[in-house]
Design brief:
By secondary structure, this protein is mostly helical. It is about 75% helix and about 0% strand. About 20% of the residues are buried.
């Protein structure tokens, strides 16, 4: 199947997407097999559930097929599918507000795509490292992070509870994420 598109070696995805827009099933099948595992791994990283991850990927591909005539991709197809998947996951988190939320928050701290380090750190260890990092934050940042993760509170709810502005909450949270990223980089170096 790929040989038909070999002339698009440098821009195969763009060519395939143009064919998908014309409802070419073969092009869709190629894209599906090319990116299914990548998107599944992304979904599983956040959802920590095989069935939900599989459903998320299926929904993304259904939306791609149905919406393709109306979509104009400004970036490459891989990044577009990544964004679609992440948005679907965010919508699931917003709608269900279950344990997925904690898994998503834990994974917002980007370690890297190094599969070795991700294999070394089991979910429980990652959670322990996360809380250890949060407990070492300055008091206000620590309180904001715990309210977001433990209580699943919105920025507005946190601002109201702490008597500060929403922008202050956002600022403290963004600074906390930066501090925690550095903390996780140091942990990663311990395991290398």
């Amino acid at each position: 199947m790929r040989t038909q598109f070999s002339k698009y070696a440098d821009n195969e995805d763009a060519a395939l997407f143009q064919l998908i827009k014309k409802k070419d099933k073969e092009a869709f099948t190629i894209v599906y097999y090319k990116y299914h595992q990548y998107l599944y791994n992304l979904a599983y990283r956040y959802l920590k559930d095989t069935e939900m991850s599989g459903d998320a990927v299926q929904q993304v591909f259904v939306k791609l097929w149905v919406s393709s005539p109306f979509i104009e991709i400004e970036i490459n197809l891989k990044n577009y599918l990544y964004t679609m998947t992440k948005n679907f996951i965010l919508n699931q988190i917003r709608d269900s507000k279950e344990m997925i939320s904690l898994n998503y928050q834990n994974n917002q701290i980007e370690i890297s795509d190094d599969s070795d380090i991700l294999k070394m750190l089991e979910d429980n260890q990652l959670s322990n490292f996360l809380y250890e990092g949060i407990n070492n934050l300055p008091p206000q940042k620590m309180e904001i992070c715990k309210m977001k993760i433990d209580e699943n509170k919105s920025n507005q709810e946190i601002a109201d509870a702490m008597g500060i502005s929403v922008n202050t909450v956002k600022s403290h949270y963004q600074e906390s994420v930066k501090i925690l990223r550095d903390y996780f980089r140091k942990i990663k170096l311990m395991f290398l």
